[in-house]
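Protein: DUF3159 domain-containing protein
Species: Streptomyces odorifer
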Amino acid sequence: MTSIDKPTDHRSAAPDADAPHSTTDADARAVTEAALFEAFGGVRGMVETVLPGLLFVTIYTINADLHVSAIAALAVSLVLGIARLVRRDTVKHAFSGVFGVAFGVVFAMMTGNAKDFYLPGMLYTLGLSLAYILTAVAGVPLIGLILGPIFKENLSWRTRNPGRKKAYTRASYAWGFILLAKCAILFPLYWWADTTQLGWVLVSLKIPPFLLAVWLTWVFLAKAPAPIDVFAEMEAAEEAEKAAKAEKAAKEQGES
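Structure follows.
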């Protein structure tokens, strides 16, 4: 019986040969997903990003009271931040939202214009979009600086992993232009629309652009080479140095 005539065995060598590659790809994608969730706060981070602004515009739509709306937004932001501290989450995730809301509250209170509650966040988004684009042009993409430590590769992608640098560059351009498009919608509304119109549009634009940028980042990194674990390399070098010293000491002791 020829090999073609033989019945197919699902436990044959060919599937086994492919299995490690498939497992490696799946592991790489899982690591990428985990890193993105860690960097950007995951589902909880998205909720915390939307909730203060949603509360502000909801209350302001009902009673047009700037002080009540601002205090409510700041209060819920503080509660969310404290909850993260109680759960021992990172300080960055715990306080980044609080500071953003606090700046908006202070600015709106100073000017007396409720729309100014949103202005610091809009300016931050504009600055961030330019930072993503300019760092990508300069060859040091911001998304690589953010994710490099999480992947334990630090800046090794800049000189040792060109495929990964290319992926980070594409992802940074994606983030930059998506956020820039968001600003192109919001800033005209800041001048032309009223507070409630601006607020509802801003809240509706919180999650979709973010998800699009994260998804594109995942797509680019999933196709990129695996990160170089510089921490593992340093540990291996230290172990090799210790072994060499031990071997040299043993040799000297034997000769004596």
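Remarks: The chain has a mean pLDDT of 81.
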